[in-house]
Amino acid sequence: MPTTRPSTPSDLLDLALRRDASAPLVTSYDDATGERVELSATTLANWVAKTADLLQDEFDVGPGSTVAVVLPVHWQTAAVLLGVWSCGAAVLDTAAEDDGRLDAADVVLAAQDRLAPLEEQDLPELLGLSLHPLGLGMTGYAGPARDFAVEVRARSDVFTPYVPPDPASPGLTAGGLELTLGGLVDAAGELAGRLGVAAGDRLLVDEPTAAEAGPVVWLLAPLAAGASLVLCRHTDPTALRARAEAERVTATLGVRIEGIRELGRPA
Question: Does the pTM exceed 0.85?
Fold first, then answer.
């Protein structure tokens, strides 16, 4: 493994690929639909490359661009975030459907169920995500948003940015927080240490906690530490014990399971 220190979020994914490209990196559950999706580092990197290629070639996203992400905690959200950062662009992270700052973004990516209020705004480019477990397109939608799944499907599996990401370029705006691309990596490493995320951890993350904490906590800190993720949406508390055992979970964020380390709390 190279000793070069990661300088942008895309470097963190590269390190995961070098550690173990085939091992599960992100496993996503939704207890409202019963879905379970597992992505290795290779599969996630493929989605990231396709997303970045779409954003760069179709929407001219690159250094200096801002991409608004109006998405829940989800495996596709991880691919979108890393795709934006691979282009060297900044993420505007907001769960607000009517946030007035969205019109400052060059592109807005939103879950299908959040599109209606966004369509009333004067947004430059709007893409909708079905969040289908198999990555399929939107159904029953006839609005102006372009379908992310349809657009991304034909994109390249290998991404090369026109301009390499600059660690000093803006990387994230979330509420009052602003970080550069390099600052995201620094913050991720610091948070991993503060929370107690360890290399090899299998981290179960509850959606409400992750949504409140933001992507540096739920996505980048585990990547920086060399951990893998089990993301849980619409969590059924009665299913957590069996899930933790089946997924070999070693730590949790946002939920307490007896006998398993809860991040941010004494062992």
Answer: yes
